[in-house]
Amino acid sequence: MRKFESNVQLIKYEVLKEVSRLAMEGTLMEEYEKIPVTIIPGPKPRTRCCIYKERAIMVERVKLAMGGDKKNSNIIEVLEIACDECPINRFTITEACRGCLAHRCSEACPVDAIFHVGQRAYINQEKCIECGRCRDVCQYNAVSDVLRPCSVACPTKALCIDPSNRKAVIDNEKCIQCGVCVIQCPFGAIMDKSFIVDVIEVLKKSKEENSHVYAVIAPAIASQFTNVKIGQVVAAIKKLGFHDVIEVALGADIVALNETHEFAQTIEEKKVMTSSCCPAFVSYIEKCYPEFLDNISTSVSPMIAISRLIKNMDEQAKVIFIGPCTAKKAEMNQEDIKGSTDYVLTFEELCAMIDAAGIKIEECEEAKLNNASFFGRIFARSGGLTEAVKHVLKEENLQVDFKPITCDGIAECDKTLKIAKAGRLQGNFIEGMACKGGCIGGAASLHRRPKDRKEVDKYGELAIEKGIKDSLRIFEVNEIDLHRHYEKAFKKK
Amino acid sequence: MMTIRVCIGSACHLKGAYNVIQGLQKIVEERKLDNQVTIKADFCLGECTKAVSVKVDDDPIVSVDEKNVKTFFEEYVLGRL
């Protein structure tokens, strides 16, 4: 049995695995309605009130695992029935209230929202402005402060609450698909849509047509599998029917070179440039700081670069990206880059597929994986892109003033963009990563541990190509279109 | 036009595929055969044990390394031009 960070991940994995198994057998359409009973056999429920509710939730999970609501363009969806209607009122007074004489709570309340009945204080929620002063002054800690975990987690306030049924709702206009709510909801009521069935179909078809399906794997793989070697995971992926497994880090090498040249050529005019490899960060700028749209690097992401490189070499190729990211699932369908990467899978989905196929990773012989340089590989963690740009500037002896600011996580990104907006930025390049730690902290990672960053660097050292130029020396990078057209990507529909 | 495909999948890459490609490119350039021979990189030709796998048109895969590039070229390519 695999170990997961929480039961939320475990249950998602079970669904994905069952859906994969049936899709591989070719019986999914006839059998998918039986999955809830297979996973929740009863008679006792696992965590909820009864097996019937658990199965009803399972029906929704199966739908998402099979691609979700096609009419909803968002990759992240709320499973309405799984949402436990967490409290909406932030402050309440608990039993710890002693009904004291001082009434510091009502004295502190600026809007007169606290009243006393019998030996207890109460908050009039209609009046409460959630300032928290009552909490601060109560000497018995009797004021409880509860925020919905999903709303707290969401960096763009895209998670709101439907007042009619108290369920969470995602405002698609604000959502950047970072996926943090997927990890944070304690009830597992928010999930990312899966393309697992599509990928299985593509693999089947490739066998009949004798075409090639390539798995391109994000450098965050370095920290993902702890008990097995990466080479064994590569072998397992090939056993699923992929023609070859290639490092997205090679795409990162291409991007680093391209982005450095872009920086050197345009920074004088642009004044500030931001990175573009993290799709949630790009989306954050689009939605929260549109004044910086023209400052985003027009380089495609490593995922798009590697996909186009492969398709340039093998016209019939299908490319499947495997990584720790939910936002990549949205990125691949953006108008200006659509058709480059065919599907995106997450590490969670990869595990589900491997297990569904009955492949034992620990018994696989190690295959090789070595396509990129050290610098491409460290893109997986915060600061990696910046180091790569520095490396190219030095290698090519480009005399440009490069003053990077590395933003680790969306909160730091926001802070830096705010400073930039005020015109007080002490730098000219913003590296933005929406997830804490970089991609290794991604919403669809198998786990997030403090030592992951070191694992990425250690893995980077194993690359046989030390520099980016070495890594790209045989490729005709000029033949690949590496430019984005954001006006097309973010055109209002 | 003859096409030489050199595998650059991970196994071949580790055994020096990039150097094989550059070696071949050099020979083609030196002998001015640019308009008769194309060298193409390919991800995984499917015979990882033969690294570095090289394929001339539709012939069977030949195992080449950076040291015997010249011999390979003379034996498998030159005679057929």
Your description of this structure?
By secondary structure, chain A is α/β, with parallel strands linked by helices. Chain A folds into three domains: 1-66, no CATH class; 91-145, Alpha-Beta Plaits; 196-489, Fe-only Hydrogenase (Larger Subunit), Chain L, domain 3. Chain A has helices at residues 7-25, 28-31, 35-39, 51-65, 104-108, 133-137, 149-153, 180-184, 196-209, 230-239, 248-270, 279-288, 302-313, 327-331, 347-356, 374-377, 384-395, 410-421, 452-461, 468-471, 486-489; strands at 76-78, 91-93, 114-117, 120-123, 143-145, 159-162, 167-170, 190-192, 213-217, 244-247, 273-274, 318-323, 343-346, 404-408, 429-433. In chain A, 48% of the residues are buried. The model of chain A has no long low-confidence stretch (mean pLDDT 94). Chain B has a single domain (2-80), classed as Glutaredoxin (3-Layer(aba) Sandwich), CATH 3.40.30. With 81 residues, chain B is α+β, with helices and mostly antiparallel strands. The model of chain B has no long low-confidence stretch (mean pLDDT 91).
Stated plainly, the CATH topology of chain B is called Glutaredoxin
- Name the structural class of chain A: alpha/beta
CATH topology assignment of the largest domain in chain A: Fe-only Hydrogenase (Larger Subunit), Chain L, domain 3
Low-confidence stretches of chain A: none
- Which homologous superfamily in CATH is the superfamily of the largest domain in chain A? Fe-only Hydrogenase (Larger Subunit), Chain L, domain 3
Shape of chain B: globular
Structural class of chain B: alpha+beta
CATH architecture of chain B: 3-Layer(aba) Sandwich
The main pleated sheet of chain A reads as: 4 strands, parallel
Number of domain units of chain B? 1
Helicity level of chain B, as a percent range? Answer: 25-40%
Spatial order of the strands in the main sheet of chain A?
A: 10-9-12-13
CATH superfamily descriptor of chain B: Glutaredoxin
| Number of DSSP strand runs of chain B | 4
Oligomer: heterodimer
Domains of chain A, number: 3
CATH first level of the largest domain in chain A: which class?
Answer: Alpha Beta
Q: Architecture of the largest domain in chain A in CATH? A: 3-Layer(aba) Sandwich
Report the largest inter-chain contact: A-B, 19 and 16 residues
